[in-house]
Amino acid sequence: MIQFNLLPDVKIQYIKARRTKHLMMLASIVVIGVSLFVFILMLFTVNVVQKKSLGDLNKDIKKYSADLKATPDLDKILTVQNQLGALTDLHEQKPVSSRVYGYLAQVTPVTIKLTSMNLDLEQNTVVLSGTAPSLESLYAYTATLKATKYTVGDSTDRKSAFTNVVWTSYGRDKTGANFTLSASFDAEIFKSENTVNLKVPTQTTADPATLFSTEGL
Asked: 173 in helix, strand or coil?
């Protein structure tokens, strides 16, 4: 059996256009429906879920604040904690007096034997007593202290580690010499926050006239 399409081309195009229109309307309705669902979901989240979460947080804050205020001697506890924090800062600022042993090991030659050391971190002075094989070795030792420099960290700025180096007493016999000398030091070399590098000269000379204390003269 043979069938013939008797619809004119205009009619066919009209039917296709109407079908396309229906599909587009259906797609638009679906998109609008999905968008409306997402909007309602976001609105629910903002107005219900977030409000509930904020309300719960406010309740927790009030509860913990009340518990904290009810703590006995709260002011005393906070005061002690503040004092402990201050003690930590003070401890970090405290001079590292133990560095003096390393410094003396660097600047003192093996021929000099130290018998006592008195370090005063308030006056920034040190008093050393000991023995030496000769006065000449004491001259060299004193000159070394005077010429010793230091740097901090990566800085190349050299500063004198010891100043006002003078003998306060000395004596000699057949076996050698004994001495007591005093010196001032730069407080920076004992600060805990500073990484100090001593620069000790290898050869030094000293003018004997500058080595003696004027006290008692």
From this structure: strand
Q: Could you read off the pLDDT of 110-155 as tens digits, one per residue?
A: 999 999 999 998 899 999 999 999 888 899 999 999 999 999 999 9
Residue for token pair 């100090």: 196
Q: Supply the range of the domain harboring residue 148.
A: 99-210
Tokens 């010429």 sit on residue:
147
pTM for the model stands at 0.54
Phi, psi dihedral angles at 210 (to 5 degrees)? -100, 5
Same domain, 26 and 126: no
Same domain, 32 and 134: no
DSSP string computed for 111-126: T-EEEEEEEETTTTEE
Whether residue 217 is contained in a domain is answered as no
What is the domain count for the chain?
2
Closest to 102 measured CA to CA, from 204, 206, 200: 200
β-sheet with 113-120: strand ranges across: 113-120, 125-132, 176-185, 162-173
40: in domain = yes
Sign of the alpha-carbon dihedral angle for 8, 13, 16, 18: negative
Tell whether 205 and 154 lie within a shared domain. Answer: yes
β-strand 176-185 against 196-199: which pairing, if any?
Answer: unpaired
Q: Does residue 94 fall inside a structural domain?
A: no
Rounded CA-CA distance 70/72 in Å is 6
